[in-house]
Design goal:
This protein has about 450 residues and is of the alpha+beta class. It contains eight helices and 23 strands. The protein has three domains: about 220 residues, 3-Layer(aba) Sandwich (Rossmann fold); about 80 residues, Translation factors (Elongation Factor Tu (Ef-tu), domain 3); about 110 residues, Elongation Factor Tu (Ef-tu), domain 3 (Beta Barrel), CATH 2.40.30.
Length: about 450
């Protein structure tokens, strides 16, 4: 699911940056597993911070009496985070090496802020889950791994942290691998890697650890630089939800009409035949614009403007696709929902559903089951879905939505639910199926 896409997020990449050069990854795990410290170590050891930033961290560490340079302060930016020593909001950080560019989402570990974790991880390529070597797997470890699987994040790295506090013991590492592997056998994880680290001391983060000669794999940064992500995006099903109709209304561009949006799938080329849904009109692409210049082709996650050979009735919420490869036009949806509100989701509850650039009213028709994140067993949802619950839900919508299964397209297969009274986002959903209209 891409919540960023569901909330009209724009790709923030330079046009020169190729998809394969940029890796988006999110850290996850329980409170105090060392997520912020690990990111601070990555930034510090890859020389991606300025001297004044480091000096500020040194001074703050001394003032707090930490006794060491607390690199977690590089990401724990909110005052409440520094006072409590936990991550509350999602902190995004950018750094680069000669091989690849990175955008990190440092997500909260506390159960209370699970919704922030979902939002931060929703459009990432890799999930980096930390486990405290002393504690092993916790409920939040399982929750975040399960959510990463639901979100269809293609790659997962389990970094077993604080190995220095267990004497760099290989048996501890192997035991946690066994526990995680056994538990995650029911999950859909395509690429799973385990790395033993000490974020505090830098073991196996950027440089190979001298303390863990028994570990023959690469350090974390090397793995992040070389994990293959170019084939992860859907380049088959052409999808472009229309976000805005561009009409400059100037003398110079009085004939210009373009349709702007973010490519959600496939490859659009000048001269290609496209169909506009839900209307079903067809035309050909006459030009593609991005960042003030024309290009010959567009692919995910580029933000572009399409021009057509014909003047069609196209507006926000419509979708461009291929005539012979269309999404499902549906009003009834079957989905996994991560519930983010204190007030439970119950049968008969009504919300606004926002799917790509299209919105409608939705009513909960059925709650089929709730998933226990510890055991992955499915149980009866007594009283509905409570805060941080995950369950399978059937929705009926007031208008037609243009959807794909989430397993096929993370953008057109995802949505958010909004409370009309408060305008709060209360749920994030991943489509399993839909009842086709007609």
């Amino acid at each position: 699911m891409s919540v960023a896409a569901a909330t009209n997020g724009h790709a923030s990449l330079d046009d020169d940056v190729k998809i394969s050069e940029l890796l988006r990854f999110a850290t996850a795990g329980s409170v105090d597993d060392g997520k912020s410290t690990l990111i601070g170590r990555l930034l510090h050891d890859s020389k991606s911070i300025f001297e004044d930033q480091l000096e500020h961290v040194v001074q703050t560490s001394e003032r707090r009496g930490d006794g060491y340079v607390n690199l977690a302060l590089l990401t724990d930016g909110l005052r409440a985070e520094r006072e409590q020593g936990i991550t509350i909001d999602v902190a995004h950080r950018y750094f680069a090496t000669p091989r690849r560019k990175f955008i990190i989402a440092d997500t909260p570990g506390h159960e209370q802020y699970t919704r922030n974790m979902i939002t931060g991880a929703s459009n990432t390529d890799l999930s980096l889950i930390l486990v405290d070597a002393r504690k092993g797997m916790t409920k939040q470890t399982r929750r975040h791994a399960f959510i990463s699987s639901l979100l269809r994040i293609p790659h997962m790295v389990v970094a077993i942290n604080k190995m220095d506090l267990v004497g760099y013991d290989e048996e501890v590492f192997e035991r946690i691998i066994g526990d995680f592997t056994e538990w995650s056998a029911k999950l859909e994880v395509g690429d799973l890697t385990f790395i033993p680290i000490s974020a505090l001391h830098g073991d196996n983060v950027v440089d190979r650890s001298e303390e863990m000669g028994w570990y023959q794999g690469p350090p974390l940064l090397y793995h992040l630089e070389h994990v293959h992500i170019a084939s992860d995006r859907n380049m088959i099903d052409c999808r472009l939800p229309v976000q805005w109709v561009v009409r400059p209304h100037s003398d110079e561009h009085h004939d210009y009409r373009g349709y702007a949006g973010q490519v959600a799938g496939g490859l659009f080329k000048v001269g290609d035949e496209v169909m506009v849904l839900p209307g079903g009109q067809t035309s050909r692409i006459s030009a593609i614009d991005t960042a003030g210049r024309e290009i010959e082709e567009a692919f995910p996650p580029m933000s572009v403007t399409l021009q057509l050979e014909d003047n069609l009735d196209v507006s926000r919420g419509d979708l461009f696709c291929r005539p012979h490869n269309q999404p499902t036009i549906a009003r009834e949806l079957d989905a996994m929902v991560c519930w983010m509100a204190a007030k439970p989701l119950q049968v008969g509850s009504r919300y606004v559903i926002k799917h790509t650039t299209r919105s409608a009213k939705a009513v909960v028709g059925e709650i089929q089951y709730r998933v226990d994140v510890d055991t992955l067993h499915r149980g009866e949802p007594e009283g509905g879905l409570a805060l941080n619950d995950i369950g399978r839900v059937r929705l009926r919508c007031s208008a037609e939505l243009l959807v794909d299964p989430y397993a096929r397209n993370r953008t057109t297969g995802s949505f958010i639910l909004i409370d009309e009274a408060t305008n709060d986002t209360v749920g994030a959903g991943m489509l399993l199926g839909a009842q086709r209209v007609g």
